[in-house]
Amino acid sequence: MKVKKIEIPIYNCNLTIILTKDLNEVVKKYKLPGNWGEFGALTFEDKSKYRHYVVAFTDANHLSNIAHEIVHIKNYIFLGINAKVDLHNDEPEAYLIGWLFDQINNFLKQQEQ
User: Fold this and answer.
1) Cα-Cα-Cα-Cα dihedral sign, residues 60, 70, 63, 31
2) What is the pTM of this model?
3) Per-residue pLDDT tens over the stretch 36-78
């Protein structure tokens, strides 16, 4: 299991990015309910820490999985600060999504080498 923890500037929270062959390793580590072995990715709020979110992937090559999980991460962050999505001023949301994509994609690419 490869792990990287990053701070998300401005939003005062942290994200742990994981690449693993089996999501059940993550489920066991964080004591989550259920069996996630058949899925390609997983995102959740780590309630044992203040505003800490975790995203885990089983494959470093599926960009669509990154995009999908970023929606969940963004929603957790916005819920944590009581932010509302503004369809007329979506720049904060768009910037955060782009930044998260770069962070996650760069980490996953490094693991391929």
Assistant:
1) positive
2) 0.93
3) 767 899 999 998 888 999 999 999 888 999 999 999 999 999 9
Q: How many whole angstroms from its chain centre is CA 81?
A: 17
Question: Contacts by 45-50 with C-beta closer than 8 Å and gap 24+?
Answer: 45/76, 46/16, 49/14, 50/13
- Where exactly are the structural domains of the chain? 2-112
User: Which tokens hold the place of 65?
Assistant: 């999985």
Placement of tokens 């998300």 in the chain: 8
Taking CA atoms, 20 is separated from 4, 29, 107, in Å, by 12, 12, 13
Residue 74 exposure: Cα atoms within 13 Å on the Cβ side = 19
